[in-house]
Amino acid sequence: MAFHRRRLQYQYKNRGRLLIPAISVISAALLVLFVLISLLAPSPTDGNGPLRLPRHRSSTVTETRNKDRTKDEGKGVPKFRVPPGRGAYHRDLWTSTNAKFYHGCSDASSKFPKAEAITRPNRYLLVATSGGLNQQRTGITDAVVAARILNATLVVPKLDKKSFWKDSSNFSEIFNVDWFISYLAKDVRIIKELPLRRGHQWIPHSMRVPRKCNERCYITRVLPVLSKKQAIQLNKFDYRLSNRLETDFQKLRCRVNYHALRFTNPIITMGEKLVQRMRMRSKHFIALHLRFEPDMLAFSGCYYGGGEKERTELGKIRKRWKTLHTSNPDKVRRQGRCPLTPEEVGLMLKALGYGSDVHIYVASGEVYGGEETLAPLKALFPNFHSKESLASKEELESFSAFSSRMAALDFIVCDESDVFVTNNNGNMAKILAGRRRYFGHKPTIRPNAKKLYRLFLDRDNMTWEEFESKFRKFQRGFIGEPKEVRPGRGEFHENPASCICEDSDAKAKVDSLSRKFGKENGVRKEDVDTAADDENMDDEPEVSDGDGDEDPDDLPTNILLNGTASDYEASLLDNPELDELLSD
């Protein structure tokens, strides 16, 4: 028995000695095979294979879309694959075809008197703006025009320090106040502070005007009070002036917005540094106003597939706005009022022909979902920049505690970019779109969200080529060409048609040559019609003088329509109903 046991032990030892070399040989062979596969396999971003985007929680792959995709698996449905590189496109990606035929023109006509000739003594207008930087910018612009309509001296506008943004900056800390006053001296008399009255601080009478108040509205509602009180302050002054004004008033708007409102030197210097650092990285770059912050999503009432967690988080934020009603996310998205996700923005740029080597500057606050939400966009466009990545904390220290100053830096970079992409139709998007039209029609891409939402929803049921073809068709009229938007449509700050002049003779010659050689030149009429029909323009009717209230007086119609503020003043002084109005 002992001999048999020793024999078995000897056999096991020999087997062990034989197995160890065999295992080593097999392991080495597997390792070499793995290395060869790694070396020979195509990179996810090289030119030989499709790019697979990571999916994330806030993608538009909603529960419905997931069910449809599962149901169609194995039925031969085309698989959606984003190709690497850039697609072929018939247009120049970085310039506007007909931009050279258009230029900004905002000089006053000979019929527009100088300020010194029409400004009445002891008539002071103050305004308190509201909202963020760009909403306040519209208020400042319109305040200058309102002062001109009223023949009043304007006191430098007050900026909003109490709203959601909680920025304590004064006008002079954002804008060059001396330049503002001097540039507009021929149009409106502007002073920095309200003068003392009988040696004491003058407290102006406070009031509000309805939204989209026109010239007649200001003359009937505001002028009576101003004539008696001599100094009034218009509160919450945002979009309180009509889109439709006489041409000289519209041109004054442009002189204010595009010339008089200049940022302070520290803001300009830092903004120019950011632009230079983008130019050092690439000859051309895109600026993207992503606008995918939690407050934006909550305000929009949209849903992005994040389940109960998303509904709860955004629902709490939405309660900040007491006037907002419960929304229908599907209806809001069908109406084109939902911002695209970062992934959808990336797909849009790819479909328009931009390659993964393009550098993108992102103007954005805190993105909802953080890096997980941004991952698909960064996978498509890895050259991803922001002011925080381009500048040190020390360089941004004097700006970072002030939301308006940080927004001003983004404004400068977006304005100087070769292509500006807006993800919503908010204040910054509107103002920059109008400014870029005025200064040479630099391309401004805005999603045709009404048409694109269904395309994004169904993209797993088509090939990339089908998606790209449909996308380019839907985006006609939304890429920043001249005359894409009809004059008078939308907010004037977005479409300042009265301030854009055309070199019609030069354009006619080029159009003639293009037709001769069978080439298409410019924006087609059907593209303009499509943009006008599909865009989310604010086409609400002008708010009437009444706005639900009685007019302050009962003057003859011919005075209201044809008279000026000076003509009108005399009929106010003996109005018996005025004292009752002023006592409110």
UniProtKB/TrEMBL annotation:
Residues 64-76 have a biased composition (Basic and acidic residues). Keywords: Carbohydrate metabolism, Fucose metabolism, Glycosyltransferase, Membrane, Transferase, Transmembrane, Transmembrane helix. Signal peptide: none annotated. Residues 529-554 have a biased composition (Acidic residues). Residues 47-85, 521-561 are annotated as: Disordered. GO terms for molecular function: glycosyltransferase activity. The chain crosses the membrane at residues 20-41. One of its GO terms (biological process) is fucose metabolic process. It holds the Pfam family O-FucT. It comes from the Eukaryota. Belongs to the glycosyltransferase GT106 family. This is O-fucosyltransferase family protein.
